[in-house]
Amino acid sequence: MGFYAGDPDVVTYLRAVRQHAGLMVPGPVQAAAAVAYNDEDHVTAQRDRYRRRLELLSDALSAFGVDAPRPEGGFYLWCQQAGLDGWALAERLAAASAIVSSPGELYGEAGSAYVRIAVVQPTERIELAASRLAGAN
């Protein structure tokens, strides 16, 4: 169950395609989705979970000498370390803590000095990576 929003012409077109393709959502699924969409508790819990993970890893990376500012939204840290390109930093983080990161160059030339880290692992795994970083100093 999902929804789309945006340009009115595109939304109108997508609605027509769904109707003619036979992609109707069954009534029980619609009822369950209505309940889920009206519940913000899970949204708050997930937001807090990611905020904690971002804080934990950002602080550990900063103590390790990596510039890791926290985003205002999302679950990615974009990090850099003076004197290293994204590939070298990705290798350093992997060796020190088993953190798997994406060299920023994969997302365009402007990202070549960065790595992108997704804090999507369970909090216990983020804590383990943070402790490994602390032990590597």
In short:
With 137 residues, the protein is mostly helical.
Word description of this protein:
This protein has 137 residues and is mainly alpha-helical. The chain has two domains: 8-39, no CATH class; 43-136, Aspartate Aminotransferase, domain 1, CATH 3.90.1150. It is built from five helices and three strands, in the order αααβαββα. It has helices at residues 8-21, 27-37, 41-63, 86-97, 123-136, and strands at residues 76-80, 102-103, 114-118. Strands 1-3-2 form a three-stranded antiparallel beta sheet, with helices on one face. Helix 3 (41-63) packs parallel to helix 5. The longest helix has 23 residues, at 41-63. The radius of gyration is 20 Å and the shape is elongated. The termini are far apart. 22% of the residues are buried. The mean pLDDT is 92.
Per-chain topology:
Elements: H1 8-21, H2 27-37, H3 41-63, E1 76-80, H4 86-97, E2 102-103, E3 114-118, H5 123-136
Antiparallel strand pairs: 1-3, 2-3
